[in-house]
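Reminder to self: keep the SMILES exactly as supplied, no canonicalising. Ligand is S-adenosylmethionine.
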Amino acid sequence: MTSSMFETSAPDAFGYLDRVAATDLGRSYKKQMLDELAVRPGETVADLGCGPGTDLGTLAEAVTATGEVIGVDHDPAAVDVAGDRTAGRSNVTVRVGDIHELPLPDRSVDRARTDRVLQHVADPVRALREVRRVLRPGGRLVMAEPDWGTLTVDHPDSGLSRAYTRYVTDEAVRNARVGSQLARLATDAGFAVPGVIPLTPVFRDARAADRILGLERTARRAVDAGCFTGEAARRWLDHLTDGPFLAAVTFYIVVAEPQDA
Ligand SMILES: C[S@@+](CC[C@H](N)C(=O)[O-])C[C@H]1O[C@@H](n2cnc3c(N)ncnc32)[C@H](O)[C@@H]1O
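C-alpha cells returned for the bound complex:
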C-alpha cells in the first residue's frame, strides 16, 4: 500500500504541530483566532491545551509586559517543551492541567483559547463549563475545531472516500464532529455565541494534504480497523497520487462569551 509520495509513519507529535502552524493555512487561522480574541495589553490570557507552546509567544506580545499568559496542557512532555520555548518571557507560565479541572481560580482570566483541543477531550461540555468558571465577566473564549464529517477527498470511486471519512469520524477522532457542534455545546455550557466562522481549506496538492491529513497512515489504520480492505486502500491511494487531487475539510472558529450567572 506504499507510495513514495505519502508519509508512512507518524511524525513526532510536536514536530507535526509546528509543521501545521508554519503552513499558510496554520498562520492564517491562528491570526484569525487572535483577531477574534481581541486581547488588550495588561490582560490575562489562557491557552488551554497549549501543546508545545505554539501560540504562547504571540499571546505574550499581545498582552505586553503588563499582562500574563498561562499555558495549560495535560501532557507533561508538551508543558516541558512549552516551558523551554518561553523561558525568556517573564509574562508566560505553563502548567500541567486537565481542561475538565483547570488549575486556575474562578474568574481569573480575561481571554481563553482552545485550538484543536475539544476534538480530543472526554467531555466537551464539562470542559467548556470549566472554561466558563475561570473566565471573568466580559471575558471571551475563542475555539478552533474541525468537523471531520465534512472531509471530502475526491476519487472516482466515491464509496472509498466515504469509507475513509467514516473511519476518521467513527474510529480515529474522539469528537470528530465537534466543530459543527461548538455553538450548541457552548450554549449548553452557559455561553453566548456571537460568532461562528467556517473555514474550508481546499488542498490541490496531494503531498501537502498528506502532510496535514496523514492520508496513507490513516488509511493503514483504517485497514487494521476493518474499515477498508488492503486492496481498496491501495486503489484509493494509487489514484490520489496519480490524478488531479482535491481534498477539503471545514473547520470552525467559534467565539463564546460567558452569559451572566
Ligand atoms: C492538536 S494539539 C493542539 C496544541 C496547540 N493548541 C496547537 O494549536 O498547537 C491538542 C492538545 O490538546 C491537549 N489536550 C488534549 N486533551 C486535553 C485535556 N483534557 N486537558 C488539557 N489538554 C488536553 C493535548 O495534550 C495536545 O497538546
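Points to follow up:
Residues 158-172 form the longest helix (15 residues).
Residues 13-258 form a domain with the Rossmann fold fold (CATH 3.40.50.150).
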